[in-house]
């Protein structure tokens, strides 16, 4: 774009950050481009360049409930995008066999109550109603067991209150990091490549330029800032800000700028995955409203129900399992439905770039960092990064303080999630193979080691979990700690003397509410069958 073009597009002072070049057209690239156009309209000029030869990762199908803020920021209602992306609802992650064969527990999207200053989990340890912590303390666990939809057949959501924000042009838009007040009761499963396609249209309709080409070179100026990227057929693309969305390659951030990558592999050894996309007959098979993570000999298998297919894959550590063995295990797990389906083997780079914003380059998505997909955090990292990018958007080059704050915030999120994932393996009672035995002695981040010792005497709360925002509230830690069963957790001694009346009433309220909702709500299959009828 010439300066005259910039002026014609009302891009203001060309010395400021106005031209943004996004390299990469996967989930990260198109989420970034869409969000920037939604945030700044025609005040900036966005170009997305993506290769026709280099594919996207293509998985990435389960999300956090906070993703709702992303769609809301784009002023999109569920009916605008869900059908286009074969999306379903996700109320929880269901963990199978992490404690012992045949056992399962949930990590739901539902805040846990607190009674007289003690988390409900603490009361549960003192006065368990059943042997199911998740069912006694959360309504969602029962809805998942009964495979319920979080919406009634007329579309009314199960928890109306948190949805009353609307999508009108005048409505103020909240971002997830600042808006921790209400817990949305569900997230989504969707086909990541369909979302990228949907967002391509969204962003290009709003003025983003789409270049399909390979970036063959990245040019730096004398200050180490990127001046342009060179493409094979479209010449040079100059910009003020470059967003590296090239996936595990980290073409701009790691290769061109040489920013080091900090591996998490010492604490999280799963570095490989094999994935299958299995056809699903919705008229015959149940659509579970949750992501399932089933523990295996050297890792775990994800199962993600979508409209018309199931996304599944085995995440494993290559130190313990060969790719052929992983594929064999996965195929056996899925059964004959996958016989004709081709497997996709993926090597994962686990960890994060030391900084995700260097000079005029921001890495978003896998180029910035990734932990294994156990709690579906990949798209959450992207969403968080682009919210923060807008929050700390620079006016020009001289913005060290903004960059530093951004870098601290994104590093905190990934380091926090790393701790949370390490907890899963330490807390899992399962220790039947060398892989699971080693999870009990493998180092975890030092601070987590200390926290784990404390949590044996006092369940996690806001004062004792990882202290910076990372998307996971204290109740999430309680779910894993008490669900996975590997630790002997004690209740607070004070509860032996405190009056339990209110706590017992709360358990009863949860039980009755769950019972009522299981009776009232349709199954996911019924809900989406109705949606199809209405379409
Ligand atoms: P990619 O999808 O790899 O896209 C890279 C883009 O860069 C492509 O468009 C490519 O063409 C382009 N590119 C690369 N080099 C060049 C070049 N030289 N010139 C031009 N273009 C170039 N996240 C979740 O939230 N939930 C999940 O359930 C989940 N499951 C996952 C399971 C696995 C096994 C893995 C590995 C990841 C999972 N993730 C999940 C993470 C999620 O897949 C990613 O966060 C997401 O897909 C973003 O990827 P990306 O856009 O950063 O990179």
Automatic annotation (TrEMBL):
7-chloro-L-tryptophan binds at residue 90. It comes from the Bacteria. Keywords: FAD, Flavoprotein, Nucleotide-binding. L-tryptophan binds at residue 375. FAD binds at residues 25-28, 215, 366, 379. The active site is at 90. GO terms for molecular function: monooxygenase activity; nucleotide binding. Transmembrane segments: none annotated. Belongs to the flavin-dependent halogenase family. Bacterial tryptophan halogenase subfamily. This is Tryptophan halogenase. It comes from Saccharopolyspora antimicrobica.
